[in-house]
Specification:
Virulence factor required for growth in low Mg(2+) medium and for intramacrophage survival. May be involved in regulating membrane potential by activating Na(+)/K(+)-ATPase. It comes from Caulobacter vibrioides OR37. One of its GO terms (cellular component) is plasma membrane. It is found in: Cell inner membrane; Cell membrane. By secondary structure, this protein is an alpha+beta fold. It has 2 domains: about 140 residues, no CATH class; about 80 residues, ACT domain (Alpha-Beta Plaits), CATH 3.30.70. The protein is built from 7 helices and 6 strands, in the order H-H-E-E-H-H-H-E-H-E-E-H-E. The strands form 2 sheets. Strands 4-5-3-6 form a 4-stranded antiparallel sheet, covered by helices on one side. It has a two-stranded antiparallel ribbon with strand order 1-2. It is elongated, with a radius of gyration of 27 Å.
Amino acid sequence: MHLYPPFDFAVFLKTGAALLTAFILGGLIGFERQWRQRTAGLRTNVLVAIGSAAFVDLGMRVAGTDGSVRVISYVVSGIGFLGAGVIMKEGTQVRGINTAATLWASAAVGAFAGAGQFAEAVLVTAFVLSGNTLLRPVVQYIHRLPITPEGAEALYRVHVVCSPEDVTEARDLLFEELERHHYPIREIETLSEGDDVVELAAILVPTTAKTQDLDAITAHLERHQNIESATWTVSTES
């Protein structure tokens, strides 16, 4: 009775081919990320691809097609935890989402390689690289376009600066003024707080606000003696 299955050189070569394919293709994806100095670069993408290929290959060898399907489902969910580690929030901006998505795609490449579908693994790699390179000029072009109420649904903030002792009054004035113009507020946050001044910002519910209304609101707020200055900003970041 054998405790372990006998060594099969043909199966061993198949596993080697799967891991080598995952290594090369994961390396191509990782090289592009490393070139752009992203958080998850060459080694991370290679290891994700190889690990996915190894687990899928093992599941197929131990439990056949059903085993590989179960392993693939665990790979899909498990990579999500790894991807969450490269996502960082800096102020109002969230960075690393594209890198996390690339790791997820590298896992898909590895899963294809582990399942012996090498042509499909190459195809997925080509699409991932195309998404990270060919679409970059399109993204940069879109980012250079001015944000207008007619062109995009954006996030608007109305800012006021006041003295620390007038914060409560400034909050009430900000709320009342926006309510009077029928602009619902998602929240009022404190952007900065010092000994002399405090900056508040009312975040509007995403909508297509009118610039004339926002100009009128900030002009009216500035006339209050409790508010030193008022302005508004618009962005596509939450």
